[in-house]
């Protein structure tokens, strides 16, 4: 295995990881910002008020995007295993 192949595999790994995590992290970020704005407006600084909606949003996002995330990770794994004979 030469260095360019190792860099390509590492690059694909990070892009796949980013792509899989993006829906959950993006929705959680949006809900967190919305709750923070609501807390600033109402001046209610309760920690659980921020935590619970983000946790529920992350759970719903995993349920909604879970099949797609699994297909993406399985596709990456199959592609990685298919590259193994050409590495040596």
TrEMBL record:
<feature type="transmembrane region" description="Helical">
    <location>
        <begin position="12"/>
        <end position="38"/>
    </location>
</feature>
<keyword id="KW-0472">Membrane</keyword>
<comment type="similarity">
    <text>Belongs to the FliQ/MopD/SpaQ family.</text>
</comment>
<keyword id="KW-1003">Cell membrane</keyword>
<keyword id="KW-0282">Flagellum</keyword>
<dbReference type="GO" id="GO:0009306">
    <property type="term" value="P:protein secretion"/>
</dbReference>
<dbReference type="Pfam" id="PF01313">
    <property type="entry name" value="Bac_export_3"/>
</dbReference>
<keyword id="KW-0966">Cell projection</keyword>
<keyword id="KW-0812">Transmembrane</keyword>
<keyword id="KW-1133">Transmembrane helix</keyword>
<feature type="transmembrane region" description="Helical">
    <location>
        <begin position="58"/>
        <end position="82"/>
    </location>
</feature>
<keyword id="KW-0969">Cilium</keyword>
<dbReference type="InterPro" id="IPR002191">
    <property type="entry name" value="Bac_export_3"/>
</dbReference>
<dbReference type="GO" id="GO:0005886">
    <property type="term" value="C:plasma membrane"/>
</dbReference>
<protein>
    <submittedName>
        <fullName>Flagellar biosynthetic protein FliQ</fullName>
    </submittedName>
</protein>
């Amino acid at each position: 295995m030469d260095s360019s192949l190792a860099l390509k595999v590492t690059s694909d790994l990070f892009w796949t990881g980013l792509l899989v995590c993006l829906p959950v992290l993006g929705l959680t970020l949006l809900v967190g910002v919305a709750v923070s704005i609501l807390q600033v407006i109402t001046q209610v600084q309760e920690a659980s008020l921020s935590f619970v909606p983000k946790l529920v949003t992350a759970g719903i996002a995993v349920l909604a995007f879970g099949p797609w995330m699994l297909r993406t990770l399985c596709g990456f794994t199959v592609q990685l295993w298919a590259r193994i004979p050409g590495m040596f």
